[in-house]
Amino acid sequence: MSLQREIRAEFSEKLKKNKYSIILASESPRRIEILKGMGLTFSIRKHSHTEEHLNIASPVSFVKECSLQKARSAVKSDREIVIGADTIVYLDGEIIGKPSSKTDAKKMLMKLSGKKHAVFTGLALITGEKTVTGVQKTDVCFREISLKEIESYLNVAEYMDKAGAYAVQEEASLFIEKIEGDFFNVVGFPVLLFSKLFEAAAGVELYKTIWKKRVTQKR
Description:
Elements lengths: L2 H14 L4 E4 L4 H9 L5 E2 L14 H16 L5 E12 L2 E3 L5 H11 L3 E11 L4 E12 L4 H10 L19 E5 L2 H5 L3 H12 L3 H13 L1
Parallel strand pairs: 1-2, 1-3
Antiparallel strand pairs: 3-4, 3-5, 5-6, 6-7
Helix pairs in contact: 4-5
């Protein structure tokens, strides 16, 4: 057995015996809710990465690099699985992140009105000896939105911490005609992609980690 495979096998064994920590390098309420909903036990750690200096035109490269840098900035131990995530909206060759103001959010929603845009989420998982990354894309179709609707929405919704100034599961659900692809990706955390990356990083299937803990707790 190669040294790399031996290290991975050792980490997998620690994982099975709960001698590890899973860290989410994000304070996003949506991501926290999704992970808790699937039954994962994890801790939250604030990352120190900022996106302002990134001059990357490709949406895939952008979210992959951001999620990787977020995860790297949160690593403290080789006995952890650290998860980094980054979500953007992409329309007409432009990367749309979080709004900087109410006026900025209004401009974003006017751009999205009546058009199909893409939502990209990058995930990065880091263990002591391995780093894996992946990107998920979902297309979202907005109906035509009147200026009056946008202004009403901005008066009641919490949009400042959301790419494109909207959350698919909240007030902006009234704007959406169709979603093509992974719904959870639009929320900000593609669950299926995460399960694949988790297995690649940890050497054990995600469902075994989650369901084993639930069975143990019931006993």
